[in-house]
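Kindly inspect this chain:
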Amino acid sequence: MTTHDVFSDSGNQTEKLRRALTTPLLTLYGLGVTVGAGIYVLVGTTAAEAGAYAPVSFLIAAVVVAFTAFSYAELSTRYPVSAGEAAYVEAGFRSGAMATLVGLAVALSGMVSAAAVAIGAASYLQGLFAAPQWVLTVVVVVLMGLIALWGITQSVTVAAIITLIEIGGLIFVAVWGFGISEPLGVDLVDMLPPLVGPHWIGIGAASLLAFFAFVGFEDMANVAEEVKDPVSTMPKAIVLTLTIATLLYLATTTAVLTAVPLSRLASSSAPLALVFEAAPKGVQQSFAIVAIVATVNGVLIQMIMASRVLYGLADRGHLIAALATVWPRTQTPVSATVVVMCIIMLLTLALPIEALAERTSQIVLLVFVLVNSALIRLKLRGGTVLRIPG
């Protein structure tokens, strides 16, 4: 069976999902999961490993991710379907079994990521509500699941609005950390520690965690079946997402390190809130609300992605048909979304945030290796190579 044959049947089917996403919506979708999943939650754990060199870890992670981002940008134009990574691997390696394993790994990474971010959201929520963290975590997961079931246009529009709020929150952190708060952290201009062997070990360990903060553009590939004009839209949105996220991360991390002592930053599960500890109460509460909104957005978008992967695998016969059930009223994969919501809830109650973030990074790294290998194999076999629009 040829690569063309693998996908020809899927291409002739009546589309079940609605093509409704434009370049701005898709870019905001990518930024929503990228920013919400990373910087609001993991600055502290990254600083614990790399110390004052945490921004370097984010920069290294961005460079590593960029190579794979370009692979996704090309492959998503060749195969604009749900469960994109599985489609890429199936095309490159001509193996349905490998495609299924990759698809399940991607879905698992999304669910583990969503669980990590849900824990972070609950930590921020505890600043406003006197309730146990596990209760707040379950509430976050259930509410995001209901929004994901609402419809792709509605859920991504909600995510896009939230994304604008969370980007505004990061800009606010950078401005406050650099220009308003008392500099209690590291003097990044005059007092950086010497960059010797042990620091590079810390930077390397932190880069793996920072890699988690860039998990997002592969989620975009998994909603390609719901994108208008994916050949033009997908590459532009992927490149824009990676570029904007990198700039935001560098500015925010540097500001937080300047404003907050490393010892306190490294032990916090709600690290950005520490920037505003000496701020007026109204400022603290306003940022707490922004942080909550940002983190729940990460849960929503990962939930959308994971459900589309399970749907895409089931729709192509790799998983049980029940997971391909689409609710006619909303045109969303209802069974897959409910399954994803339940698994995320179990993960939040079973594992700590650091373990969840590390497992996500490891799974995604493996998937990235296979996707890049699939593209190389496709190129070696010949055929038209689609160029990324400038």
Summary: The two ends are 35 Å apart (CA to CA). The CA atoms of residues 87 and 99 lie 7 Å apart. Residues 1-15, 384-390 have pLDDT under 50 and may be disordered. The chain is about 75% helix and 0% strand.
